[in-house]
Predict the structure.
Amino acid sequence: MLRDIAVDAWYSGDRQRLTKVYERDERRQDGRRRLWSRRPEPGRRDRRMHVPLAGDIASTSASLLFSEPPAFTCSGTDAQARLAALLDEGGAVMTLLDAAEVCAALGGVYLRATWDASLARRPLLTV
């Protein structure tokens, strides 16, 4: 589980999360601590910087995968019209883009169709 948290921390780009993940990290063989496991010196400004490259790569990967929205088709004009309405109302293309980004960052993702009549009068696609 710690490994998954570490991956998510790198993806998020949040310095505090990176520090939290690595604060109990063991020292390297040469005795020094890794960048995010170092403790800031009292009275000195913390100058560690994180460039969220993992998030940028995941976002770019998702954008390339869905640079053109997928086409969903079914037989019958009424069924096709209803499918198009459901996909448009539910923001399915954006959900797929979000799922692709999460998958690129964390290595896997599940989509599920849910239905909650108190929220919407249509099925909801969630990541």
